[in-house]
Every structure is written in C-alpha cells, then in structure tokens.
Amino acid sequence: MKRILFPFFFVVTMMLIAVPSYSQTTTQSEDSARVKTREQMRVLLDKVGPAIKVAFRQSQKQPFNFVGLLKDGLTNADSLEIVIGITANQTIGFRIFPHYNGAYVNVDKVKNNVGLMRQLLRLSDQAFLYWGADQSGDIFAGYTFTLESGFPEAALTIVLRSIANLDPFVGQMKPNIDGSSAPPK
Predict the structure, then answer these.
(1) Structural domain range at position 75
(2) I need a labelling partner for 177 at 20 to 30 A (CA). Which of 36, 119, 143, 184 fits?
C-alpha cells in the first residue's frame, strides 16, 4: 500500500505545480493576442478614420479602447461618439453614443422613455446595428465582432463607414426624446 501512495502523491503534487505555470502562460498569450488586435485596430483606424472624418485616439482611461467623434454631415445629432473596445475574450465591440442638444440621450431624462425604449427595440430588429442603453441609461448603437476567424478588417471597415447612417434614426427618436416632431422621411 505504501508503494502505491507515493506515486499517487507525487503525480498530484506535480499537477499542482504545473497548473499555475499553465494558467500564467495562457494569460500572457491572451494578453499578447489582445495587444496584437489593438495594434491592428490602430492601423485600420488610422486608414479609415480620415475617410469618415473621425480622428480616433486611444483612451487614456482604458488602453484597449479607441474613441472618436463624428460631427460632419449630421443633421439630427450634434455628434456621434464612437467607442471601440478590444475585449479580453476575443471580441471587438462598437458603441456609438448619439449626442443631442449638448448631451447624451439618456432613457431616464427623455420626455417619453417607454416610447424611446420601444423604438430602440424595433430599430434593433430593423437596423444594421443594434440599439441599447448602458448602465447609466445612455443609449447607444452597437455591433460586436468575434475574432475566432482572425481580424475582420473588411467587416470592421463596413461598420465604420455605416456609423453616419445612424443620424436619421436620431431624428426619428426626437418625439420621444424632447417632444419635437420627427423630420420627414
């Protein structure tokens, strides 16, 4: 019995020693993949940003986020704030926050919040980008990419070029935001 116990104890001990080094290597690999994705995104934004008239910068608070502001060519929103995040779980997330009358559109501060939320749900079904609200109630349009098949440069470019198309939706939301009439379609 003593002969069997020693090899078992040895194997279990070796497994416990090996597990931390495996998880540390996995974390380093995930971090390097995330950094690589961030740098690929930086190159893409440097190329596509000027074409859509947005200067993107890396966030000071979150080093895996890029932020840009679209102002040109909008008739309904003051601007569209674009936040692009490279996550630790192999995704790239877009969040585009419309600014209207000098502020974010917040579901708790609009004239008809139930109407706005219903409208956001309908738009999520009809539009290219989905609509939602963050934890503070600020509304955004979003899109999420998975990186399982590599860096989707062409698809990311399409989303970047589509952001300006969100402006008419802000116009449609005006009756729910401030009670004004929506622009003609």
Answers:
(1) 34-177
(2) 143
State the Cα torsion 98-124-177-139 to the nearest 10°. -40
- What's 85's domain CATH number? 3.30.1460.10
pLDDT tens-digit profile of 86-122? 999 999 999 999 999 999 999 999 999 999 999 999 9
Provide the domain count of the chain: 1
Q: Does position 16 have pLDDT exceeding 90, yes or no?
A: no
Instruction: Give the tens place of pLDDT for each residue, 157-183.
Output: 999 999 999 999 999 999 999 998 877
20 lies in a domain? no
